[in-house]
């Protein structure tokens, strides 16, 4: 190798592009810097949270919670949903393991009869 040549990587790694995005949660503006390919997802997520807040506002008629209280309620509701989904996933995995064990047992018994 001559002195004029440099060791360059064979593949060029592209930098991920980021962009500031303005969203509003519960009427409060927020600027979030996110990857360009995640902008639509971020906007969709903000709309999801805002819809949850609107639903709670509709359901809570006797009191006027603050935005912070709404956000706490939404967080608690979402956490509950995550916990429920994780339990369902664990239950489904357990059922899959039980079914696989039963299939193995049936296959073993079928082989022993042959």
From TrEMBL:
A single Pfam family, by name?
Answer: ZapA
> Could you name the domain of life of the organism this protein comes from?
Bacteria
Q: Which GO terms describe its biological process?
A: cell division
Keywords, A to Z?
Cell cycle, Cell division, Coiled coil
* InterPro entries the record matches: Cell_div_ZapA-like (IPR007838), Cell_div_ZapA-like_sf (IPR036192), Cell_div_ZapA_N (IPR042233)
Q: Does the keyword Cell cycle apply?
A: yes
Chain segments annotated as coiled-coil in the UniProt record: 39-102
Q: Does the keyword Cell cycle apply?
A: yes
Q: What family does the Swiss-Prot or TrEMBL record give for this protein? A: Belongs to the ZapA family. Type 1 subfamily.
Q: Which protein are we looking at?
A: Cell division protein ZapA
């Amino acid at each position: 190798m001559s002195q004029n040549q440099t060791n360059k990587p064979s593949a060029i790694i592209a930098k991920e592009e980021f962009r500031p995005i303005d969203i509003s949660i519960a009427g409060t503006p927020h600027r979030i810097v996110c990857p360009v390919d995640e902008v639509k997802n971020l906007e969709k997520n903000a709309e999801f949270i805002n819809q949850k807040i609107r639903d709670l506002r509709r359901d809570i008629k006797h009191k006027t919670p603050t935005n912070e209280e709404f956000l706490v309620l939404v967080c608690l509701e979402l956490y509950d949903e995550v916990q429920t989904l994780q339990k369902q996933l664990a239950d489904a995995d357990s059922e899959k393991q039980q079914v696989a064990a039963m299939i193995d047992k049936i296959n073993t018994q079928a082989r022993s009869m042959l």
